[in-house]
Amino acid sequence: MERNSNIPIRNIYYMLSYAYQTLNLSEYKEIGTENFENIQELYAEILSIGIPVLIRGGLSKDYISVEETSNVIKGKIDINSTIKKNTLVNKKVAVVYDEFSEDILLNQIIKATLIYLARSNKINQKMRKSFYGLLPYFTEVSDVELDLNLWKKVKYNRQNIRYQFIVDVCRYLYEQLLFDESSISQMMKELQDEQTLSSLYEKFIYAFFKRETSYKVSKSQIQWNVDDGFADALPIMQTDLILQKDNKTLIVDAKFYSENMAARFVGGAAKQKSSNLYQIFSYINNWKKRPDETVAGMLLYAKTTALNQPNHLYNIKGKQVFVVSLDLQQDFVGIQENLLAHANRFFTEA
Questions:
Q1: In terms of CB atoms within 10 Å, which end of the chain has fewer, N or C?
Q2: 237 and 219 in contact (C-beta within 8 Å)?
Q3: Cα(first)–Cα(last) distance of the chain, in Å?
Q4: What is the DSSP string of 235-289?
């Protein structure tokens, strides 16, 4: 299988820069001039700079529910717990109350990551010491066992959005080290790398067009164009990117795969992936367009080293579907130029 495993680390840095504008802060400027031997070094360097930035800004706090036995009544008395624990013997009751605390999931993830990195032999000694030196700032934060499921529970809001970049990088680095240190097969590790880079690729594509073009950029959900209004149990159509200008709309779906085209048997002719085509065709057919609006779809694949790469334009029932690829191994200037050219191909045509 041809994989996207040879993306230059410098390009991954640029993708991160677009996907997370936090990386444009002055504290990170020197990272762009450094050379890293592997992606783990890049992630670790980002965390060694970014976590102290979070600490200087003050660790986020939120109200958490606290349960304890006390001879002072505060919050609510838990009658059942009081009886079960027989606390009245000692003239105490079980109480439940809210406390404004640093002991929240986001801080727990960062603390657990620091502990993990401080002990990992995959990180150089100097970096391990720097991570260990940050732990005293998290003394009020509970210890949790680091697990990929922790990130699924994270929710962001206006108060804690500054954590998103660092917490995501914590996950990227943990995944890299976890699979390096385990006995999991090389194929499984490559699939995990692919999933991580796929998420970053989608974020990058969206942020690039948001920052570098004058298009109206969004990533809305598309509602099914049902006849009777009944849409229960229909899958959500969540777009990666929608570009709009004047009376033209381009719906883009970013794809990061091991293989961009498929053959039914070894040596057979490479074909478009049917599920991807069905998906983008559903998007453009269910888009509620204005009478004067032209709507098209684009499948934007990250290029692999396979001989056959998507580079096609289909006209199906009066709708255009572009199927193209983007070479992430080229110089980043070329990446920028290719992205603009792919979009302009639709928006500049008569």
A1: C
A2: no
A3: 40
A4: PPEE-SEEEEETTEEEEEEEE--S-SEE-SSTTPPPEE-HHHHHHHHHHHHHS--
- What counts of helices (H) and strands (E) characterise the chain? 10, 13
Which one, of 123, 112, 107, 138, lies nearest residue 44 by Cα?
A: 123
Report whether pLDDT(345) > 70: yes
Provide the residue type at 236 as one letter. Answer: I
Host H or E run for residue 294: strand 294-302
Which amino acid would we find at residue 133? G
Q: Which residues pair with 217 in a beta bridge?
A: 243
Does position 181 have pLDDT exceeding 60, yes or no?
A: no
- Note the pTM of the prediction, 2 decimals: 0.81
> Coil, helix or strand for 216?
strand
- Structural domains in the chain, CATH included, are 36-60+104-181 (no CATH), 66-101 (no CATH), 203-347 (3.40.1350)
